[in-house]
Fold these 3 entries.
Entry 1:
Amino acid sequence: MSEPQRPIRLIVGLGNPGPEYADTRHNAGFMWIDSLAHDLGVSLKVESKFFGLAARAQLDGHEFWLLEPQTYMNVSGKSVAALARFYKILPDEVLVVHDELDLLPGEAKLKQGGGHAGHNGLKDIQAMLGTPNYWRLRLGVGHPRTLGLNQPVADFVLHRPRQDEEKLLFDSIDRSLAALKWLLRGDFPRATMAVNTKPKPPKAAAKAPE
């Protein structure tokens, strides 16, 4: 029987600071953290020594940190490493929530380790932590080609999703937030099942006889 893994102690949402980037696809991680902070009734505050907005939170007796780096995406690792080292949080106790081009809006995936697939935020975090062995929660935003858009990727992620895509994104945020209790217990198989299993669409109502 495998030993239980260490629970999550730091949850990082990736994005870019500033009103011009608010609600863009690249800020899906910020959206997730904001939703969680709202649900928990905590407020993120400027923590200059961590180069970001941070808050200490509790759920079911488990204490953990929320973090939104304010360094811009491509140097997110500076913020993550600063908080993790200060509180002696190991890489496998860190969850990074970020936008994912390879998943459609409404999809979400939980995984540990792996490559950064060109995502500048993940690339810098890996460099600053010295390992890819942290957890990632990937929130699908789709790819411009998949969504039938003739738009460069860099431009695509820095724009707000279309209304139908935005609803699907927030559906995936709500669904993945329900896995938090398992993440805080170190029960990653149950957390993964909760995040990766998409809810079945409701059955169409039977047509009444005329």
Entry 2:
Amino acid sequence: MSAFQELMAYQRDTEALAQVGGRLGWDQETVMPRGAAQQRGTEMGVIEAVLHARRCDPRVGEWLERAEAPDAAGQAQLREIAREHERSLKVPADLARRLAQVTSQAQGKWAEARANEDFSAFRPILEEVVSLKRQEGAALAQEGDPYDALLDGYEPATNAAQIAAMFDAMRPRLVALRAAILERPMPQGLTRQFDEAGQMELSRELAGAFGYDWTRGRLDMAVHPFCSGSGDDVRITTRIDSADPFNCLYSTIHEVGHATYEQAINPDYALTPLGRGASMGVHESQSRIYENQLGRSRAFCGWLFDRMRTSFGDLSVADADAFYAAVNRVHNGYIRTEADEVQYNLHIMLRFDLERALISGDLAVGDLEAAWNDRFKQDFGYAVDCPSNGCLQDVHWSVGLFGYFPTYTLGNLYAGCLNEALRRDLPDLDDQLGKGDLGGATGWLRDKVQRHGGLYLPAEVIGRASGMPVTEEPLLTYLEAKFGALYRL
């Protein structure tokens, strides 16, 4: 075999092992018995140690020096393998293993602390996670910014200064739009209970309508909805609130956006670095456009209104227009994943600033709860009432995902660009959505974005798909037009 072929064969084994590790993570958050947490942490640590050793293997560097790519996809494979190899070499093996072990254990402690409304019970292990992530960031950054180094693991070719500039450009218009809306009468929401079985049945139907391949996936319950896996095994989770079916339905649609991205990637890329999304921001663009620009559109809400009445009977809203207003209500709330489109990015800005301060050392973990509560009161105008509605609401920091949060807003920006191009290319899109037909929209996204996997860098894949550079303008224009009409601004 050529050096390129040897490298790719080796890489496929590494990718397959990483998928096994991911499956352990899925099991931990869905069906693993609570008493297994300590052992699972050890298991995850061992797998990470093996993966780290494989990624640092000197043969990888030797193959990279000698490999000649046969085509553009091969060049992209070498780019991504080299990137992973270089990052891995910077992180000591014992640190990588310890991170995997501690974050596995921290996830369970976070879930327990969240259920008991007790940040102090979570604080010790979070302090250990933050300490380890600071070490990892410093190792990766060398002489640079540790937070930028962590961010680069989720969104290549992006740094905190660029994101902060985008946030600074977005914040005034989002704050002004939010203030104008909250001065208007709030639409009525749904006021009855919705049974779990009915919500899950409709969630499964919606997942199929948005293109989820059930022969290669499954839907389960979790504390925090997520998507796991790639290729021929891509799993999603959701959660249920009997008083709020939109939580379950739109969480499912959101995760299906992630899942169909993974399922649609060119099968030639399976178990290679190109066999996954281009970045977490691009990944989020798919889940957000599925959930919001498609799933919360007036046209699709009209179809969903009729479908929900078939399943649940009277919905406590008068008609399809009132249902559309209920789906898109802008209202006070604590939870990021339940936030409306207008306020969602303000939640991300709060987390971005706090996690940068944690990694830099400007904020101690012991002061995190108070800092969160103070910032939330400043940004949203009311006080956090309990830890599960505050700094314990998200799983991300417990599992070490520092640098991940800003990719949610990047995903929204990318989705804004894609939505503008999608509607330009499919002028009859609303007619399709009004019939519950997602095939045109999801097919467009599959062709323009999803099938390419990691072939292109994030800004390139969005630019190629949308025909425009990435800016915040399409998203802000969309939000101002949609909610301006809804609230008669």
Entry 3:
Amino acid sequence: MRPDPHLPTSDEFWRWSATHLARAIRAKEVSAREVLDNCVKRIGEVNPRINALVDLSFDEAVEAAQVADDMVAAGMALGPLHGVPTSLKINSDQEGFATSNGVVAFADAIATDDSPQARLLRSAGGIFVGRSNAPTLSYRWFTENDLFGRTSNPWDSTRTPGGSSGGAAAAVASGMVPIAQGNDIGGSLRYPAYACGVVGLRPTVGRVPGRMVPPDVDDSLSMQLMAVQGPLARTVEDVRLALDAMSSFDPRDPLSLHTVPSPSPARQPRRVGVLRRNGVSTNIQAVDDAVDSAAGWLAAAGYEVEEIELPLLEEAYRLWYLLCMQDFRPMLPLVGQVGDIGLQRIVAHCYAVAEQWWGAEPTLDECLAAWARRGTLISQLQQFLEDYPIILMPTSAEQAFEWDRDIVTPESMCELAAIQYSMMAIPVLGFPALSVPTGVADGLPVGVQLLARRFDESALLDAGALIEANAGVLTPVDPH
């Protein structure tokens, strides 16, 4: 059999994309065990330097790789991620492993079943090699906790890898795994992807099933309506592959769909709205340059690119700090009991952000009015996206933050909240968004964010692929 001309020629399989690995394993050009051994070697070389993967599961992975190779030899049906090394986040149940979420007191909370997100990746053929680190209770844009310690950004150890899926993004960026699972209710997929120079997709709510609380615990309304599971990878093609693998039904998720809807054709399918400015923060030059580059590449590819304003996102950003922070109040006793200093400070600082608009004790009537207002904003955005089906905007107004800027003072967190306003605005409304790199500035990755109509992830990925074709793929990198 002749080698696939699209496959890399290097035998450093940790550099290969998930798409190329799955294709080569299926074609018997390389075995799942060979791929695993090479990735395990890479993990051994770089993970001690950045601490992205914890609870390593090499013994289980070896068994899974042998099963994967036996299935290929027997000519059995293979999943889209067959034999591909993958990681799962420490806030997601994986049978036989602790769902610690970075909390020392939960170090022995062994899961007895796979979460929906784990089940889907496993059934697609993914091989779990370890669990990715996250901040305590997955609450910060900075990945560290008292149980596993700090995860470094492979580009610069003085900068955050993002959070809460910072371990996932750092593992992908440094070549430990080609695909990692993460989740997002306040930027936890998109910001780590941005900070580490990889691609991260926040799918539409309901497309990818997930659950992050025990079966006997009632999930909060904001978690049900805003939180999503999604993939991080080094290429847009791999994110598309992982999204297809993760898009299914699971009865444990109350919003999970049996069939993913196909959006009707937009009135202006090739129009892109460029949202450069907002009313809450000012972009640094590198961020403006990234938006300019992406807009230029899309225009050159035939998109009609126009500058827009969209103040409803500013309103949605403020709503997040009412709806989510009020939903979080029942968790405050737990934060006091098991939370580390970083968690306790960031929670207090987030309430300080909320207080500037909603006061110290919002009423039930104010919360009900905010939920009603959310529906109006969703309707307004849906109508806007009929004419501008893709919105190009910054992921963040700055590059990856220096460590602990969120917990210095309440004022420092208020500043970061403004810089990160879209991290909150988009989840409130439940729309899909893609973070894609555009290049490197001053030694750090920079990129843009694309927003699209609900269930129109294909439009996001098509536009993201055009940006990537011009910007190139920035990773894997050796940790600095």
